[in-house]
Amino acid sequence: MQRPNRLSLWLFSLTLVALISVPIRAAEPLASWNDSAAKEAIIEFVKTVTDKDSSGYVAPEDRIATFDNDGTLWTEHPMYTQMAFAFDRVRTLAPQHPEWKTQQPFKAVLENDLKAVAASGKKGLVELIVATHTGITTEEFEAIVTDWFKTARHPRFKRPYTECNYLPMLELLQYLRANEFKTFIVSGGGIEFMRPMTMEVYGIPAEQVVGTTIATKFEMKDGKPILMRLPEINFVDDKAGKPVGINQFIGKRPIASFGNSAGDREMLQWCSAGTGPSLKMLVFHDDAKREYAYGPANGLPDSPFGTFPQDLMDEAKESGWVVISMKNDWKTIFAPEKE
Amino acid sequence: MQRPNRLSLWLFSLTLVALISVPIRAAEPLASWNDSAAKEAIIEFVKTVTDKDSSGYVAPEDRIATFDNDGTLWTEHPMYTQMAFAFDRVRTLAPQHPEWKTQQPFKAVLENDLKAVAASGKKGLVELIVATHTGITTEEFEAIVTDWFKTARHPRFKRPYTECNYLPMLELLQYLRANEFKTFIVSGGGIEFMRPMTMEVYGIPAEQVVGTTIATKFEMKDGKPILMRLPEINFVDDKAGKPVGINQFIGKRPIASFGNSAGDREMLQWCSAGTGPSLKMLVFHDDAKREYAYGPANGLPDSPFGTFPQDLMDEAKESGWVVISMKNDWKTIFAPEKE
C-alpha cells in the first residue's frame, strides 16, 4: 500500500475542517408541519428578515423571538404542569402538616378534588404556591424541581412532562436559531420551575427564560450566602405583565411572538407595534384525539388552563396573527418517546 | 495561462472555509495590563476553566461573568454618569418647572451645588429620578438617553462618557468572550439608562444587562401599546440586591465577578459560593493622576460614589479576591479618543 503523501494529508485535514464548519441543519426544516398557510407564514417571514436586500431585513442581534410555554411549547392539560408539581409537593409535605387534612385548598388537593381547588380561587392558588414553592433556598428548590421532572409522569400520555412538548414547535425553535434568532421563553409559569429543564427540552438557556418570580432575599447562613425564597410573589409574567417582563429582562422588542391563550394577547400586541415586519402566531388546541381541544373560540369547551376566547380569535383575524390548528397544521404532536 | 482545474478550485474554496473557521483573536490578550499578579490571576483562571483535562473545567454554557459598571467598566467620578444625566435633564426641564428654583433638590442642581444635592439624601435622589426618568414611555426615555450620550461630555476628560470606559476592562471582556464566556453587566445603575450604549461600548447586548429598574405599565394609547415609566423604583440592583438580580435575570451563578466598591461585596460573595473555581476581582481607584483616587481603604479619601472601605479590602485579602491597582496594574486607562 502506498503511504499517503503530504498533499493528501493536507487535503484530508482541510476537508475535515470544512465538514466541521458546515452548520448542522435538519435535512428539511419544519418537517412535522403540514404544508399550510401557517408553515408558509413562518418561512416567508424568516426569508424577509434574513434577506439583506429586503426592506424588512433585521440584523441578527435584533432577531428576538419570544415563546409562551404552557400550551404553546408543551401540554397544559389536564392542568398546568407546575400545578401538578405543586399537588405532588402537597402530598409529599402532608405528613408534616396534619392540619392540611381539614384546611382548604390543601384538603382538596389531598382528595384530588380539582373542582374544590379551583373554587378556592386566586387566594387558594397563592396559598398553594407559598406552601410548596417558598421557605427554602433557590438551590433547594432547583434540586426538588429537577428530581420531580425525573419521576413525574403525565396522567394521559404516561411519559415525563419534559417529553410532552410539541415536536413542531421544537423544530420552529431550531429553525429560528438556525437563522440567527435568539429564542426566549416568556411564560406565566414560575421562572425557577422552568429553568431546570429549558436547556435540555428546548435548547433555551436559563438566562433566556422570563417568567413569574417569587421574591428572594440574600442572607448569610453559617458563613455561606444563600437566597431564600420568600412567601411573596414578586412579578406575574402574564397578560399585560408579559410586555413588562420582556422589556425588563430582554430590553428589546421581539419581532416574533408565539402564544396560545388570552394570557399572550398583550405580548402579541407589543410584538406587532414594532417598526419592521413581525410574526405573531397562536397555537389553537383543536385536536382532542392527539392532544386536547378547548377554546371557547370556535365553540370548543372553555378551560381555566389556556383559555382562547372568541374575541382573541377575532383579534387574531383582524390583526393578521396566524392561528395554528394543531389538528390540521401539525403532522406529529410529540416526538417519539425517549428510551 | 492555464485555466484552474476543478481540483485547485476545490482546494481554494476549502482553504477559504478553513481560514474563515479560525476564531479571530487579538495578537496579545490583555495588552493594556502590566505583567502583574492580577493579569496572571485572570490568565490562570481562564486556563483552568477552559481546560477539559482540568478538574476545574466549566462547560461554555456555564461560563457566566458579571461586571459592575460604574467604577468597574467606566469612570464614576466626579459623580455617577447617570447623575450627570439627571442633572442635565433637570436643566432641560426647568423652564416647565418654575417651582424648582426654590424647591430642593432641584434648586441645588440648578445652582450646581453638589453638597446640597447630597444633603437631600435618598429622598432627594428618588425625587430627582422620578422627575427626570419617569412619566414618559420606555421608547421616549431610550431616545432621550441615546441623544444625551451623543452630546454630553465628561467635565475633566472632555470626551463622551461612552469613551470614559477602561481599555484594560474592555480587553478583559473580549478575552473572556474569546474563551466562550457570556459577559453580563450587573449594575446599580438604571437598566434602561445603560442598555442604549452597552452594545456599542462593551459589546454587551441589552438582554445581558441587569440593573436597577423603574416600574412600568402596559397601556393602550391611541390604539398603540406603550410601556409607561411609573414614578416608582421597582428593584434596586445594588449590594444584597445584586445576587437577587443575578438569580432573577440570569438564573445561573457567575464563575467570575468584577466590581469596585462596597456595592459589589455580595455579588462577589455569591460568586465565591459556587462549587467550582471562581474569579473575583475589585478595581481599586488609586490613580489620581490618570483617573481618580478614593477609598477610604489604604487611607484614600472617602467618596459617596464607589466607596471602598477598609473592611472590604480586608475581606478581599482574606477571601482571595484580587484587588486591581489602576496605578500599577494598568498600562493605559482609556482607549485613544475616537475621531
Walkthrough of the structure:
The first copy, chain A, has a domain of 215 residues: Rossmann fold (3-Layer(aba) Sandwich), CATH 3.40.50. Helices cover 40% and strands 15% of the residues of chain A. Chain A has a seven-stranded mixed sheet with strand order 4-3-2-1-5-6-7, with helices on both faces. The interface between A and B is large, with 45 and 45 residues. Chains A, B: GO terms for molecular function: hydrolase activity.
List the helices and strands and how they pair.
Two copies of one chain form a homodimer.
Chain A: H1 6-21, H2 37-50, E1 64-67, H3 81-93, H4 106-110, H5 114-119, H6 121-133, H7 138-151, H8 167-178, E2 182-190, H9 191-202, E3 209-221, E4 224-235, H10 241-250, E5 256-259, H11 265-272, E6 279-284, H12 310-319, E7 322-325, H13 326-329
Parallel strand pairs in A: 1-2, 1-5, 2-3, 5-6, 6-7
Antiparallel strand pairs in A: 3-4
Helix pairs in contact in A: 3-6, 7-9
